[in-house]
Amino acid sequence: MALSDLRPAYVAGIGLHRYQFASETTYVELGLTAVRAALQDAGLPWPAVESAYVAKALLPMAPGRPMLRHLGATGIPIVHIEDASASGSAAFRHAVMEIAAGFAEIVLVVGVDKPMPVGRAEGLARIGGLADDAIAPFTHFALLADAYAARTGAAVEDIALVAVKNHRNGAANPFAQHQKERTLDEILNGNRVSGVFTSLQCTPVGEGAAAVIVASEEGLKRHGLGLDRAARVVASAGRSQRVYEDSTRYDAVLTEETASGAFREAGLDPADIDIVELHDAFTVEEVEYLEAMGFAPEGQAVPLLKEGAFDIGGRCAVSPSGGLIAMGHPIGPTGVGQIAEITRQLRGEAGTRQHVGARTGLAHMVGVGAVCYVHILAKAS
C-alpha cells in the first residue's frame, strides 16, 4: 500500500535548535527550543498535538516525557525511536503513517541528541567482520573514496569539491554547526582524519534538535489553518540491507533500492526533484548516493558537481542546508532537520539559500545496521 492510497499527510510546522559543538546546554533546552519553534511556525497550541515521536541515538532511555512535560502533561502517547543516523527519518515515517492511516490529526516529531559514549550493538551480535577493530566509519569511507576515484577516474581533489559547496551553503544557514565558507585548499590541507579525508570533508560531532509538525488537512482546518505553507509527503520508503554481490558498497545499493521505491510511490523520477538533502557524512557519500538514486549517471556525479549542477540555482540543489558536512549530524535530529530544510525551501523561505521555484524535495538517510529511508515532499499549493 502506498501513501497515495491513504489520506494526505502534511508538514505544517518546522523548528530547530542550531546544531553546535558539545556544550553545557541540556537536551531538554535543545529539544524544547525546536518544539516550541515548530508549534509557533505551524500556528498550533501544544494541546493540539495528539501523539509524539522522539528520535534519539545517544541519549539514555525515555528522554521524551521529562522534556515534553514542560509544555504540559497532556497524556499523549510518546514513542522513542533509535535507528542510528536514520533515527529522525524513521520517526518521521511513523508520524506520517499515523496521520495517513487516520489514527491522529496532529503529530509531533522531535529529534534531539548530545554526544555520549554509546556503542553499536553489532559487537554484541557475534557476527562481526574480520576487520571491525581496524576499520572505523571514516576509514571505511576513505577506502570507498579511493575505490570511487579508481573506478571513475575522478581526482580526490574533485571529490573534495562536495565540501566546498556544502560549507558555502552552511555559511548562509543560521542553524548550521559550520558557518564559514572554505576554499578547496583549506579543505585539502586541513587536519588529516583517514586516507584522503581531512576534518572539513567529514561531518563534525555535535548536538542539537529539530522538530516538525505532521498534520492532516482536517486537523489543520479544526484550528483555522490551511495548506498555504504546508508540504505534502508524497512518498515514504524504508529498507534494510540485504546480501549484495559487492558488500563494500552496501549503502549505495541499499540507497538505490530505497530511492527506487520512493520514486515509484510518488510517481516521479530524479528529473522532477528540485531539492535533495542526503547522508553526506563524508564527501564521497554525496557523489555515490547521487549516482545510486539516479541524479547522475554512474561516474558522472563529479563532472556535474564541477559544472554547478548541484549548486543552489543549478539543476538540482543538493544539501542547500550545508548537509551533514556543514549543517552537522547530531544523529537523532538529522533526518528531521532534513525535512525542515526541504519544507523551508518549498515555502520559498530559505533566504540566500533559496533554490528559486522549488516544488519538490527528497530526503535520504542511511543508518548503521544498515537501514535506509527516503522521503519525497511536494509543495501543497
Entry keywords:
34% helix; alpha/beta; 19% strand; Peroxisomal Thiolase, Chain A, domain 1; ten-stranded mixed β-sheet; 381 residues
What would you say this structure looks like, in words?
The protein is 34% helix and 19% strand. It is built from 13 helices and twelve strands. Strand 2, helix 2 and strand 3 form a beta-alpha-beta unit. The protein has 381 residues and is of the alpha/beta class. The chain has one domain: Peroxisomal Thiolase, Chain A, domain 1.
Sketch the major β-sheet.
10 strands, mixed
> What is the tally of helical segments?
13
The CATH architecture = 3-Layer(aba) Sandwich
Helix and strand sequence:
EHEHEHEHHHHEEEHEHEHHEHHEE
* pLDDT < 50 runs, ≥5 residues: none
Helix content: 25-40%
Strand percentage: 15-25%
Q: Strand arrangement, largest sheet?
A: 3-2-4-7-1-8-12-11-9-10
Principal-axis shape:
globular
Summarize the structure.
This protein is of the alpha/beta class and 381 residues long. The chain has helices at residues 27-42, 64-68, 87-100, 137-152, 156-159, 161-170, 184-188, 217-222, 250-266, 283-293, 301-306, 323-326, 334-347; strands at 10-20, 51-55, 78-81, 106-113, 192-194, 197-198, 207-215, 231-240, 275-277, 317-318, 360-367, 371-379.
